[in-house]
Design a protein that fits this description.
Layout: H1 3-15, H2 33-48, E1 51-59, E2 65-73, E3 76-83, E4 87-92, E5 95-100, E6 105-110, E7 130-138, E8 141-148, E9 155-164, E10 167-177, E11 182-186
Antiparallel strand pairs: 1-2, 1-11, 2-3, 3-4, 4-5, 5-6, 7-8, 8-9, 9-10, 10-11
């Protein structure tokens, strides 16, 4: 395969799927008040979150791993990879740019049809164009799965939060793209 195509495929794979097991349920029509309250809590979390240089570890669809530091503020994401080598992802609004220093390349990707775009709103709104397909709650853990309302086949994002004393802290993200490729990102200390 041509080296440039490998890079573009890797960049696409990095973005197309970004976040535990995907919970593609039947949607939340008629959801209980408790589930609606949990969805509202997650919206509030994304309106106020300010992750600055948080360590992350990522597993790509082929099983390889990497990691570095992540910064996320409403509408803006920056991932600086130190492993497997220097790379970075900058995303805001409807666009992302993936830069691979080792390959001396840059890939621009639109987020309108990419699962990562579900988390790039400012504010993040989990209704209307976004459907919450499933909410799962266990002691100390809250998990939500999201998809695009108008085209769920474009991917699924599953967010897992630590939920302690009614405070949320993002723990992991799993993104499944339309080809069922999965990327898993953990924000927990390794």
């Amino acid at each position: 395969m041509h080296k440039g195509m490998q890079l573009n495929r890797r960049a696409f794979t990095l973005l197309a799927p970004l976040a535990l097991a995907a919970c593609a349920g039947q949607g939340m029509q008629g959801a209980s008040g408790v589930k609606n309250a949990d969805v509202a809590r997650v919206e509030t979390y994304f309106r106020t979150v300010d992750l600055e240089g948080a360590p992350f570890q990522q597993t790509w669809p082929n099983g390889s791993r990497g990691g570095g530091l992540i910064t996320y503020k409403p509408g803006s994401l920056y991932m600086h990879y130190t492993a497997p080598h220097e790379m970075e992802l900058r995303a805001s609004g409807h666009h992302a740019v993936f830069t691979d220093a080792q390959q001396d390349s840059q890939t621009r990707i639109g987020l309108a049809h990419n699962p990562l775009g579900l988390l790039m709103g400012n504010p993040v709104v989990l209704s209307g164009p976004v459907t919450v397909t499933n909410v799962q709650k266990q002691p100390g853990v809250l998990q939500l799965s999201l998809t695009r309302t108008d085209n769920p086949s474009q991917g699924l994002v599953t967010l897992v939060f630590h939920d302690v004393d009614n405070r949320l802290a993002l723990s992991s993200i799993q993104i499944v793209d339309e080809r069922r490729h999965v990327i898993f990102i953990s924000l927990d200390p390794v």
